[in-house]
């Protein structure tokens, strides 16, 4: 039930529209009118010279409604004008400290706070690109992410200083300016930056600083766990920012709405739906550091929130909170996000009242997206088969799945729906592209997502393929976790995969390992190692110790078998361990632990 929503200047998909949704055009007229309106608007922006970026649009919003609250955060309100002035200060301080030039990149390593948005605006004013680091990553991954987009400077918030100290020698080797958002810093090599911001002038910056920006210029780098290896920086161009910034408009959000943002701003959903879409609509953002199920509705009530954003987990956590008399006492009318399960959806509506849910699908770096507009079907992008790799016919072309079957979602790459690839990673960029899909020589973007289309062309997300799985809204690259495990001296081999757990979206991490001859598994040491090196969501919750390796199958077959076998100690003969946070150790897996996990008594 997804209707295509991105597709720059949707003119491109008019023929597709006619072909696929003609019967539904009339009932869905309002949505189609909005999309076409936005498409026309965008093609107008595109023709402007220089390119009319979202930043210039923000500056026009500031002129139109300077006093409108823009960000509400922990008891403080910043108007559109405040944000403009504050970002002028930040831009000037950045200019002075880091000598930035148009086209340079600065990495942000910060949690959700208004400064995040000011930084982003400031970099736009300098014609620079922001690289948005995930604040959960550490050590080797952090250094890798930082390095792969050639950033000149790193801006961090005070609470992440320890993580940066760990990689400081490597940063200094690369001559990187490291700036902490604090009034002072006692660490050599980390300069205080908040004091410099406070002292800087808030006069507007010359547009000449960004005069060379075009539709194709990099606006942000967002990190994604693609199919293999360490995270990759997906380049989001200025025109892609626009495409993403009309999602709320397409979903029917008006300039009177108030949006509640608690997803991390380093992710596309937090940044685009939460911030750039809000700018596009000229609305107020109620920003939170982190999602809190217990505070959620109180926040919504206190700030008259009308639009919320979600990932599947959030909706489930909200449904799991104790029922209250005032559950329906709020003004939320719309929820936009992805990953909600049908049963949670029903329960959510039943409990919290009449809220329209707009489920959408889009990959950060991809060139395709859909939105579920209340039961109206849509389809674009041709799925071809099958489980891990596309099935090809005798001519080497992909087979299209039939209705009802699950297939891999791919989307044609063209000048109107380009795939910008990953910074300094041509190999991975190439791997995300599929050639000879329906015709010799054609080129498609491989989303890595399995979808099913039903009789009415409604899309249903099924799973991810390849060497990633999704857990708590984050993609986990199995090879990255395996590399971390292999750092342990007694582990000879490690295969990492995701397993399904009853009651959860996505999959949680599991590793099958082989211990070196004459060595032993040390559950306490293994625990502290993974906890030190991996973010919470990527931890292998189960470890399976294998002595003999299956040599008759391919690696992929072995992995699929492991996934299917899961973590049930009754059916698996190998020693199994479970990561126990309280005991700070892996503990032997038992039938009791297994059933407590399946029944939800043990929280993962
Ligand atoms: C814009 O590009 C021109 C030509 O490439 C260059 O001379 C000029 O310095 C650039 N402007 C800025 C602000 O970088
Ligand atoms: C929320 O709405 C009520 C009634 O419309 C109004 O009295 C109140 O001031 C509003 N609160 C905020 C924070 O805007
Ligand atoms: C789309 O939305 C409708 C109701 O708004 C819902 O019944 C349906 O299950 C949704 N479909 C998907 C695939 O999410």
UniProtKB/TrEMBL annotation:
UniProt domain AMP-dependent synthetase/ligase: residue ranges? 60-422
SUPFAM superfamilies, alphabetically? Answer: Acetyl-CoA synthetase-like
Reaction(s) this enzyme catalyzes, per UniProt: a very long-chain fatty acid + ATP + CoA = a very long-chain fatty acyl-CoA + AMP + diphosphate; a long-chain fatty acid + ATP + CoA = a long-chain fatty acyl-CoA + AMP + diphosphate; tetracosanoate + ATP + CoA = tetracosanoyl-CoA + AMP + diphosphate
- Specify where it is mainly localized: membrane
Q: Does the keyword Signal apply?
A: yes
**Which interval of the chain is the signal sequence?**
1-18
- A GO molecular-function term, please? long-chain fatty acid transmembrane transporter activity
**UniProt cross-references to PANTHER family, sorted A to Z:** LONG-CHAIN FATTY ACID TRANSPORT PROTEIN, LONG-CHAIN FATTY ACID TRANSPORT PROTEIN 2
Protein name as annotated:
long-chain-fatty-acid--CoA ligase
